[in-house]
């Protein structure tokens, strides 16, 4: 099984969806660690209760972004992950960090990228008059929320939706999509190549024409 470390900043419901999926004997990845950038991230206690080594690295405890990331690298060297999963990790990683894990680091974003990267995605989708919303799992590259897309899931936007009600609906499909996307990467059925997500799964590839 591939070793995955999950990065969180908050409640960690996506992290817990990955943990739950990894309990299945045939799941190709195990969650070997959780790293947060907030000491009070709710997900830390949930991970610890599952017996998963979990660590907080608080940015203000370090003199620089480089020093903060060096501390995270040291923890990662001990966990020796094959794959990093960003799951509501609300901090931009440096180019050095991203290059170190290029092709092995994925993120979930609560919009149908390339629409609505960045913050306040749900309100922006509502304000734009969209009738659907959704989530995206993508390889992490240096452009924020720009990396090649591995998978997406869509939900309707209903009249009367608030950012909160839409976020809750999107979150339910995030919890389904993220374990599916991690499975594809852990089984080497998708890889990043030439700046694109390439399916190496003959069954999933579009028919030749
Ligand atoms: C999720 O909706 C995730 O897609 C989003 O934060 C939430 C984290 O919830 N991520 C981003 O907005 C990244 N830009 P969780 O901690 O319960 O998984």
TrEMBL record:
Binding site for (6R)-10-formyltetrahydrofolate: 65, 90-93, 107
Reactions it catalyzes: N(1)-(5-phospho-beta-D-ribosyl)glycinamide + (6R)-10-formyltetrahydrofolate = N(2)-formyl-N(1)-(5-phospho-beta-D-ribosyl)glycinamide + (6S)-5,6,7,8-tetrahydrofolate + H(+)
E.C. number(s) listed in UniProt: 2.1.2.2
EC main group: transferase
Alphabetical list of InterPro entries matching this protein: Formyl_transf_N, Formyl_transf_N_sf, GART, GART_AS
Keyword Cytoplasm: no
UniProt family annotation: Belongs to the GART family.
HAMAP family for this protein: PurN
Function: Catalyzes the transfer of a formyl group from 10-formyltetrahydrofolate to 5-phospho-ribosyl-glycinamide (GAR), producing 5-phospho-ribosyl-N-formylglycinamide (FGAR) and tetrahydrofolate.
Protein name: Phosphoribosylglycinamide formyltransferase
Species in which this protein is naturally found: Rhizobium tibeticum
Source lineage: Bacteria, Pseudomonadati, Pseudomonadota, Alphaproteobacteria, Hyphomicrobiales
